[in-house]
Amino acid sequence: MGKLQAFDIAFDNNKVVYSPGESITGTVTVKLAQALQCKAVKVSCNGFCGITSKVNDTTWTMEEQYFNSTISVADKGTVKQGEHTFPFKFLIPATAPTSFEGNYGRIIYRVRAFIDTPRFSKDYSTEKPFYMLSLLNLNELPDIWGPCSSAVTQQFTYMLMKTGTVVLKARTDLKGYTPGQVIQVTANIHNQSGKTTGNMAASLMQRVTYETKKPTHDVKTIAEVEGGVVKAGKEVEWKEQIIVPALPQSALTGCDLIKIDYYIKVSLKSPDVTLTLPIHIGNISLDKKQQPSKKAAPLSTEDTPDTPATTPDASATTTTPTLPPRPAPKPAPRPAPRSRTSFHNSPSAPPAEYHPGAEGGTQVNDDFPNKRQSQLVSPNAFSYAPGLFFSQSQQQNGPSPVPTGPPFTGSAGATGLYPPLNNASSAPLILPPNYDTSAYPHEAPPSYDESCNT
């Protein structure tokens, strides 16, 4: 081994993982078989990032340095035979990013020792790496609370023919996780076509971006789970779990050359439909105690009505100041009434996302917005027809407030029949006279206005 028998670096307490702002201390051990002339014995501590465009290449095309400190532990002279120990201590900057090793770049921290010898003599060097961990607190990230959800619609093409669409919705229970936690993935697939889909799958993906002159993206699948198929015209809700393994954190704060992103990819193999749900991987998990509470805002003076509605008359006379008064619609001419006068609400239109060709399927999960809903239509929603009669139980329960404006306004609260005036719930409804006893009436039937004012 020549003159130098041992040249080692040791960290105090055998510590190898440090945090920004800490001090790193240790010793350099030199064991010589005979005396050695030297200019100096130096120890340095540095951290830097290097990236390249070739896989596992250490010839960096771009670099950035975080710190580089050097101290001299022995001056010029002769190092005697035997074993010598030199202590060192360095302060790590608080802005140092977390260590990282990828296919196209690395963030490296190391302590190096040199024995600088005179000219034409052999120099000696050694180094020992250590790891930096800058904790990422998920609670400090913006917009981290609540689930992450997304939706996509894809045309289903079979044999160059469009057979329908497939609607895929998915969400995760959280937006941030730590290694060891479980990601709850819920997917809703509505197959509105005539063909069965391929298998569904959910994957935990990692994308590392290296900021070279032309950015390099390294995408890999960390974990994947697979589900079944969805038959034609069916709707399925699929729930799965993914355990987060030991992974680098999402944010390499302080590094401008390497970016790390994580996301959940939910996909179908046929048709080729995919959506992504971005998530964060950190070191300190979310604490529900730190979640900002959503308190109901107190009512302002503008929202508070001036006169409380304590009686039916008061509630009937209260009007909204922001809406202009509606003019009373002109009554359309109609023949002499043959039965009870009927007024109705126009039925509302079906939901915008209703597709007539999509029949069957399971019930949609309530957690997803814009689900299809069936609408109940009241019998009073149909137009008046002679001989059509609905029992009193189908109209409304309880007495109706006394109308003070036009009897039919087209609003959602309009009743089916005119209620009797003076708010008499037990009074019979006013019916037109019966002219079935003779071929012709002895006197003219009452007019429309007379019937209403009786």
What would you note in describing this structure?
With 454 residues, the chain is mainly beta. Among the domains are: 4-132, Immunoglobulin-like (Sandwich); 139-286, Immunoglobulin-like (Sandwich), CATH 2.60.40. It has 2 helices and 20 strands. Strands 2, 5, 6, 9, 10 and 11 form a 6-stranded mixed β-sheet that branches. Strands 14-20-19-16-17 form a 5-stranded mixed β-sheet, with no helix packed on it. A hairpin with a 5-residue loop joins strand 16 (200-210) and strand 17. The chain is elongated. 19% of the residues are buried. Residues 296-322 and 336-427 have low confidence and may be disordered.
Mean pLDDT, rounded to whole units? 75
CATH architecture of the domain at 139-286: Sandwich
Write down the secondary-structure element order: EEEEEEEEEEEEEEEEEEEEHH
User: What's the CATH first level of the domain at 139-286?
Assistant: Mainly Beta
Spatial separation of the terminal alpha carbons: 124 Å
The oligomeric state is single chain
Q: What fold name goes in the CATH topology slot of the domain at 139-286?
A: Immunoglobulin-like
> Radius of gyration over alpha carbons?
40 Å
Instruction: Describe the sheet with the most strands.
Output: 6 strands, mixed
| Count of alpha/pi helices | 2
Q: Give the structural class.
A: mainly beta
Helix content: under 10%
Shape: elongated
The fraction of residues assigned to DSSP E strands is 35-45%
Tell me how many strands there are: 20
Uncertain runs: 296-322, 336-427
